[in-house]
Design brief:
The chain is an alpha/beta fold. The chain folds into two domains: 87 residues, no CATH class; 194 residues, no CATH class. 40% of the residues lie in helices and 16% in strands. The strands form four sheets. A four-stranded mixed β-sheet has the order 3-4-6-5, with helices on one face. The protein has a two-stranded parallel sheet with strand order 1-2. Helix 3 packs antiparallel against helix 7.
Length: 303
Amino acid sequence: MKVIGIASDEEKPGGALKYLGKLSDLKEIIGEYKIDQVIASETKLSQSRIAEIVEICSDKSIALNFVPAIFSAMTLNVRNETIGSMPVLRVETIPLDGWGRIIKRISDFIFALICLVIASPVMLIIAVLEKLTSRGPVLYSHDRIGRDGVKFKVYKFRSMYIDKCDFAEGGSKWTTKADEKDRITPLGKILRKTNLDELPQLWNILIGTMSFVGPRPEQPKFVEKFDKEIPEYYKRHRVKSGLTGWAQVNGLKGDTSIAERVRYDMFYIENWNIWFDIRIMIKTFGLIIYEIFGGKYEYRTRS
């Protein structure tokens, strides 16, 4: 373990450790020095300051350790550990850590590989139809924000006319179904209705930038906007983004309430288990079949 330095409300406290700044700047310090673990060793921290540190570390998916004297901070799952010769309390925030994360990754990889093999003939047919029915690339990619706030490329089959695609406009605004009415190609309408436009995201899952189940990824500019407007928004980035999610199977997709989506995403993150994933995937498949055969699923109004 490499100790980067110390953050304190005191003006440059004595000692051999490098002074990084005040605790009020902890969020920026974590980002600047790429810190992956925080140890709270001061016993004079106020309750509000402790709560702030817990919140920042949770938002950033940073391991947070308390010296055992600070018992009043134990509001989450805690286990005893030692760092060097110093006893600490490790605060565990989500089930998708340790073995949970490993199990989910293995199941994602195996299932994505199987699905890619099965879906490859369909994907080839779609690629040919894309070229025959409209000009432009078969696939398009967008920047999205995933786990730990890391930017990645998400892939889809193109469903819009080339001169009206999001990448042609730079995706400058939040779009609704009304906005997209005249932008979607005839093939694109079929792809979207059947969700086949998202088949290339199986590659995202295979390489590990996405999962089958998790919060849906959003564009960087909207992440920045929603992070300022919606409490706990950034906490949804504790886990990988998903092809489907608990929010989506409960009617929260497209032009629907972002705050409500966050509430459902957080419920999923805090209550994850492999059976929960299976339940969501089965429900997703059922909804797709229902809509393909003419069913109308009621989605909620955005606020």
